[in-house]
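Hi P.,

Sorry for the delay on this. The queue was packed all week, but I finally got your sequence through. Input first:
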Amino acid sequence: MRVTNATIRAVNGLTARWAGVAEGGTVFSAAGVWPLLAFLADGAAGRTREELADAVGLPADRAASAARELLAALGSAHGVDSALGLWTKRTLELHERWESGLPADAHGVLTGDVEVDHKALDTWASERTGGLIERMPVEVKDSTELVLAGALAMRTRWLRPFRETPWCPEVGPWGGGEVYLGLRRSSTLLDRIGVADTPDGHVTELKVCGTGALDVHLLLGEEGMTPGQVLRAGVGLLTDRDRVVPGDRLPYGEAGPGVRVRRVRAMRPAPPTLNVTTAAYEVRASHDLLKRHELFGLTTARTAVAGHFPGVSDFPLCIGSAQQAAVAKFGALGFEAAAVTAMAAAPGAGIPQLRWMVTTVEADFDRPFAFLAVHRHTRLVLAAGWVTEPVPFPGVRW
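Then the structure:
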């Protein structure tokens, strides 16, 4: 996947700012909304253009080309599907320069029949995300002149799967006696985990590597850190690796949030081992982007006055609705996420002779934690979120 460092910084910067206002269990994709904002910036004027350029993190005259570059890069990445769609009323005339900058097959028509249009948009969202998002998150009304939408879906299978197990954390917010679908895995690759000292507190980072250069980073902060603080720290660690102490250099004892390094007796010599326990999760969220209009550069664009987007059409347009629907699923075999923006062994016989001492690094993600879905080579964040409710263990009644 080829994309410039400036675009990666811009998208990850929007991810970090969005993370700053994240609340509760959630999932979102700045990479899903960023191209839409970039195309709007290209067609905007005045204060609207300035606000969108600030949100995009690039000059408005470079935004559209960067959006095309990002969409092409996402489309070429293994395990990632990306699409952009534009629907307009037949009576709305677009400026050729702006329309020609969109993907060739992006333009569709709004018939004026709200039910028919909703069905067509829902079908597009479902097809472009493999059924992960079944409905287009924006409402189409009789007065709707234009819909600009983006879809982003990603799937990966773990290079080393987890084992599923019933899991009952003993303490903390998940320690109420419920039985969750736990995931466990052991590895001699201690560098998959690390602890970082960030401005807001210590954060444990676990990299779960998948196929197609798509990884998921699990992030556990100190108790009391907010979702936004943990997520922002995770984005920052993508480039500031000097803050991270890898697993093979962690001290004995409580080495970081959820991490303990121990010397234990064993029957035979063995290399240091990383033992991870985490939770399977499925997170869904809907976001009204206009409620955070200042974050997305839509403050002026939402006002019903003329002159916002003269580069798009001579017809006066304003942003009446901007929504994102997102989902992320993390299981024993892999991870999948999508966003549409419209905008052990039992004891055997005998007692073993434990003659050897071996080192283990044990990491338990047994309370709410954050995650980032990251393209391994570019470090572009494709999705981010916060897990508050693990998946219950199948067949167990609460």
